[in-house]
Specification:
Layout: E1 5-8, E2 12-19, E3 34-40, H1 42-52, E4 57-63, H2 67-78, E5 83-87, E6 93-99, E7 104-110, H3 120-129, E8 132-136, H4 139-150, E9 155-158, H5 170-175, E10 178-182, H6 189-198, E11 203-207, E12 213-217, E13 222-225, H7 238-251, H8 256-271
Parallel strand pairs: 1-4, 1-8, 2-6, 4-5, 8-9, 9-10, 10-11
Antiparallel strand pairs: 2-3, 6-7, 11-12, 12-13
Helix pairs in contact: 1-7, 7-8
Length: 285
Amino acid sequence: MTASVFIAGPASWNSIVVLDRLPEPVPHMQFAEDSWETIGGTSAGKALSLTALGRQTLLYALTAEDEPGERVRSALDRAGVRTLWGEGDATERHLNLMTRRGGRVSLYLASPAATGGADDDALVAAMREADAIVLDLAAEPLRLLPAASATGRPIWVDVHDYDGEADFHRPFLDAADAVFCNADRLADPIAFLRSRISAGASLAVCTLGAEGAVAIDADGVEHRVAAVPVDVVDTNGAGDAFLAGVLDARLSGVDVPAALSAGARTAAGVLGSRHLHPLLDPVID
């Protein structure tokens, strides 16, 4: 299955609970303002946005033969996302506690372990034919890192709220041609981005929520983009959409400032939906 972008990583079934404030770490009771179930997973979010942009994309993710897995597979199929499903020992599930201001606590209820590699021939062939490979933070993409690096294709990684020290992220960072993160846990985002360029990445980007994003290019030049104003319904998937917009633009040959603007527009396009992407609005009740 050929694709311009090959993505490996989580596709999950999520329960979203909206609260007036995130819970304090003491026994207490709170009332939810709203709640719903939907598709989650950072790789699913990127695949949905790239698909909507018209970029030929192949998502590789693991699900089990259970009810949450069937929901994930069915919804993404109906949304038009091209997929290659691996057999997981569990379907990933999250409970996301959210606030209207974008605060979030993600509780992982289940997460699949890495496979034994039964599908590796097909996966390696798909990665070799892709213009770019996106590997997200999970056990199976970690297992695929050496094979992905061996293809010589550019690897894009998203380390989310990395704190600059966690060991699990290191192999992804070491393999990355493009690094994305958010500023939630970084003491000095600019210093971190410059460290990735010094380590060999050609692009490093940090999203700043309502303040937009900042990037350092291969020449060490700093670029900034403002967030696009929008009425926010749900912030899940905004960072994934931002990366997808930048990736699509870069593959189309535009420069870094224009690509960041494309990322900001793509991120804004998902903030008005309570799902990862508006493609899911007619698919999930």
